[in-house]
Design brief:
Elements (H helix, E strand, L loop, with lengths): L1 E2 L3 E5 L4 E5 L2 E9 L3 E4 L2 E4 L3 E3 L3 E4 L5 E3 L7 E2 L2 E5 L2 E6 L3 E8 L1 E6 L3 E3 L3 E3 L2 E6 L3 E3 L8 E6 L3 E4 L4 E7 L3 E5 L3 E8 L1 E5 L5 E3 L5 E2 L1
Amino acid sequence: MLTTISNLTVRDSGSVTVSNSGALNIAGLNTSGTVDIGADSVTSSGGLISSGLLKIDTGSGSIDLFDAANQNQLSGPLDLRGGDILLNNSVITNLASVNAQTLTIESTADITDSGSVVVAGLTTLSSSGDIILDTASNDFNSVTINSANNVSLVDENALTVVRASLSGTLTTNSNGLAVGVINASAVNLDARNGAITDNNGDAAVN
């Protein structure tokens, strides 16, 4: 449907497609159906629950799905296209497709991918579980890991790990690698035919 609205609530629905002129706030979401949203920018106000595909396209606009109470339960695949993308989640986060300028995710469970994650700028990730972003066509610029158990990152091009703090093993596979501050129990770094550069000289394996 073509709309010009400020707030959207979707509950117990089948598939929903919204193409909105202007910014859109998701005031409520509790559904197992596919939700496809296009808008200039998207925000949320309250916990979102979705077990189906959640697709949001804002072009170069921002997507902010951060709930201060951490009540988001986005268990379905996420297809996100926008400028600066921010979200938190209290269940496993499945990135089906991402194209962003910057990407920030905080999850109390694993962060995984089932499709390409392409981020032109900084990707910042925090998880109480594992972070496994191993699709071959992923293309990050720089990545910061604030917390995780084990982390696996695959990049079809060069990768910069600005900072990584995790309790387990950091594994990377990219075409060239630059690393900054790393605190991990073990590291497995594969730069293919490229170089591995220590930007800070202070990587630590605990």
